[in-house]
Amino acid sequence: MKRKLWIIGLILVLAVSGCGRNDAHSDAKVFKESYESLNGTQTDSGKTRLTVNIPADNPVVFATNEEIKELLRSGSGVIYFGFPECPWCRSIIETFLSVCKEQGITKVYYLNNRDERDEKELSETGEVITVKEGTKDYYEILGLLGDYADEYIGLENPDIRRLYFPTVVVVKDGKILGTQVSAVDGFTDPYLGMTDSQKEELAGIYRNLIGKLLSCDLDDKC
User: Fold this and answer.
1) All structural domains of the chain
2) pTM of the entire structure?
3) Quick count: other Cβ atoms within 10 Å of Cβ 115?
4) Which segments of the chain have a pLDDT < 50?
5) Which of 91, 97, 128, 194 has the fewest C-beta atoms lying within 10 Å of its C-beta?
């Protein structure tokens, strides 16, 4: 009887361990499905969403707010802020993931905090009004990004920042090495997709950005 219980216990332990090992694969699958399920669908304004093909073995892992904050404080890695419905995100995602694979990046920390952002606007008298407050986590992430976060468009106040999508952040030991927001200059319609030359230009930007993470001096400082 004891031996039978021991065997059952071992099976349960192995099953739980197996689930842990499959987490990354599950994230990759969910990420792929979340983007591809919108291929060719219509927006509320009648625009057709871009069709994207996400590799099944993509390196995306779903990160929590706390994990992102810890990375920005003291960690190292590649962070991707975005969401499936975002037309600009759909424009860059294939190029971004392709460069990650090319550069040997095995983990991309993904956070969709779209609904956690604040919303601000200018009043008729030029006063900044907060229409919707952001969450505590969002403000903390924004604070950790600092000047790497873009100015809030339309407020005419460079001190007010916002996280726009897509944003790729590369961080090493809590130091931000660089960011890339949106696509490339001259690309104005995300529903049409980038040209081959624009994709190559963006790929070069990502290679340079990720290269900063991979190449360090002899004293391990980047």
Assistant:
1) 23-115+136-149+162-214 (3.40.30.10)
2) 0.86
3) 10
4) 2-22, 217-219, 222
5) 128
